[in-house]
Amino acid sequence: MGVDLRQVIAGILTLTMFVMLGNMIKRDHFDSVEEKFPGGATDVEFDSGKVTEHGLVTFAKSTNGPWIEDAQELKPCWSKSNFDEVEQSKGFVTFSLTNGPEYHISQIADAVVVARYLGATIVLPDIRGNKPGDERKFEEIYDVEKFVQSLDGVVKVVKYLPDDISIRDFAVVKVPNRVTEDHISKSIEQIFKRKGNIRLATYFPSVNMRKTAQKSSSDSVACLAMFGSLELQPDINEVVDSMIERLRTLSRKSGGRFISVDLRVEILEKKSCHGSGGGGAKTCYSAQEIALFLRKIGFDKDTAIYLTQSRWDDSLNVLKDIFPKTYTKESIMPEDKKTKFLQSEDSEFEKVIDFYMCSQSDVFVPAISGLFYANVAGKRIAAGKTQILVPADIPGSSASVTNHFSPYISKKNHLAYSCFC
């Protein structure tokens, strides 16, 4: 019996149509369903308290990457109305903000805790860069009125010292980050009583912000100062907002979402960056390693990426080859703002812009370990932005994004501050 070629072709076409129809049904009724994975950002603990987000990690409906929906914004677990009134002394506490915004919020918290314990008045700090003579007024970076208002009823704040008091008469006191009341009582109080005024110099024995066994009644004061007092002054806030809007426009294919990566070439080139941290984990990752990491956990080539690197460097080309929509400040900042905010490679403006860009992005990837990572994580968790992905060398061609959540938001290793409920 002969075979009619026309019948064979018709059969093939019919079968092809059924396969196409099946794929369409699968996409419409299965692939569009939200994927939910167990684990991840379900428990968050800050020192003595626990923040529990019931349910599962929910991935966004949009494809082109393993984007996670923001969690519910957390409420602060402090209330100024619950703070006891402190008898004010005639003494003053002065200090400077140094080394960038990730240090500023810790320095503010320590100064507020010390001043409140002593009943002293805080003098609005200045801001000092890494170079001699690089000084700015507080109001050039932060909103003064909101700062003073946020601490009303907690500690008294003045903008300037009285004319009859000289800064040369102040005793300089070294203060460990996350200072405790016990330390203040033993090492600071007697100096303050003897001298009447002190100047604080905060040092950072460790950048570890995970849970500690020691608890203090000043924890809520530190949390208020850390997360409730510093806001950008309007001009800088406007620049940050415009850069975020620019990135969201460039990432329309990803639903307006973008990734921020703390990647600074000058740090990556240091010797300390070539070794490993505790437990064999690396302390920093190169542009190539970040590119491969993001690709293997499922981010699409159209994903927009913001780098904290100030100026483009040739070593970043490999990242841009895989993710063409990779940008630094100079490429997305409004032209009329560049003269003021990109005037030097070591600008305090640039540091603070990076900190707040990383705090507000949809995903944050810390290519460098340290206090920047820790304090950005704190601000993000407070805002419900819990997608913080720790890079790693991934064998093979792919990996689950849930395996790379930051330990600050995992069940077993919790953030150190009981600041939010």
From TrEMBL:
Assigned GO CC terms: Golgi apparatus
Keyword Metal-binding tagged: no
Membrane-crossing residue ranges in chain numbering: none
GO BP of this protein: cell wall pectin biosynthetic process; fucose metabolic process
Keyword terms: Carbohydrate metabolism, Fucose metabolism, Glycosyltransferase, Transferase
Keyword Glycosyltransferase recorded: yes
Signal peptide: none
InterPro entries assigned to the protein according to its UniProt record, in alphabetical order: FucosylTrfase_pln, GDP-Fuc_O-FucTrfase
One of the Pfam families matching this protein, by short name: O-FucT
CDD domains registered for this protein in UniProt: O-FucT_plant
GO molecular function, one term: mannan synthase activity
Similarity remark: Belongs to the glycosyltransferase GT106 family.
Protein name listed in UniProt: O-fucosyltransferase family protein
Upper taxonomic lineage: Eukaryota, Viridiplantae, Streptophyta, Embryophyta, Tracheophyta
